[in-house]
Amino acid sequence: MNVHSQLIHSLEARYYTDPAHFEREKDGLLARTWQFAGHASLLQKPGDYFTIDIAGESIVCLKDREGVLRAYFNVCQHRAHQLVQGEGNTKLLVCPYHSWTYELTGGLRSGPNVKSVPGFDRNQICLSTVQIEDFCGFLFVNLDPNAKPMDAWFPNVREELRSFVPHIDRLQPLEWVEIEENCNWKVSVENYSECYHCPINHPTFATGVIKPETYDIQPQGYCLRHTTECQNLERMTYEIDLDSNEHAGDYSSWFLWPLFSFQVYPGNILNTYHWRAVDVDHVVVWRGWYTIDGVDSEVVRRLAVQDRSTTVEEDIYLVESVQRGLKSRGYKPGPLVLDPACGVHSEHSVQALQGWMREA
Fold this sequence. Notes:
This protein has helices at residues 3-6, 14-17, 19-27, 150-153, 157-164, 185-192, 198-201, 203-208, 298-326, 348-359; strands at residues 35-39, 48-54, 57-63, 69-73, 87-89, 93-94, 101-102, 108-110, 131-135, 138-142, 171-181, 216-220, 223-228, 251-256, 260-265, 269-279, 282-292. By secondary structure, it is α+β, with helices and mostly antiparallel strands. It has a 7-stranded antiparallel beta sheet, sandwiched between helices. 24% of the residues lie in helices and 28% in strands. It is globular, with a radius of gyration of 23 Å. The protein is built from 10 helices and 17 strands.
């Protein structure tokens, strides 16, 4: 038997370059997975709402008068005008087209002259609901009404996050850094999900935060869990109180398939990645940085600047070069480097990712 044929090869280039494949993803994968919508601090008071585009759909997320989180397709059930734009606070959802008015619980309350229509029953009309979950203060939605809850997709992640970031419920965004990458979203996600390239391409990350030789990534449901020992913590560019809790000196990351990741730096500093797939060749990555109650922090702002100018900048060149290479007629998918012992020089995490891509 040809030993070469037993090797596991990377995905064919069309998965990353074919516009028709991206359209299929919008209808399938991106519409049937848990997608980050926004931070819970956007919905603090009853009536608070915001809108978000996911898989080609506009979604409105809100808090109703009883404090219950709700999400709807942002479309009037009368003649399809969008209900709201942006974010704000409202007592009712009023369509700007014909003033059909909905309760925050989704039911139709009124519309001009509808009572004169024989047989019209407003109780039969309500907004189309979308699943929404609060995951440690981060709001996720899933357009699939039959999707399993997040804890089934990402087992133990909620509990682990709380142990690494004991104050996670008090966090609010301090800074969002927007990064445009000229590549398919899967190229960017794969790059994030392996550290085979870290020692060569990320000197600041590999010498200032992690010990590459201890870096490992393992699947945990549809989560990829990154773990590592940290470099000499005295070399960190900010002070860390190692006695404050059990994970004060640790780094860890939880990538939630397909487009979100929580990262915790030593000192229990939370930051996030959120990928937004624009089209087959473009993705926007949002880096979120958080502090307790959103209070300003020079340490966190400095970390955001350092991260953007080193690791993020280094990755932009890598992923954009890969996207160009995927379009080359000279590219044939090579075998993945799968070390049975895993570790930093293995691509077993990419194998898991590409398995989910094929499955989706």
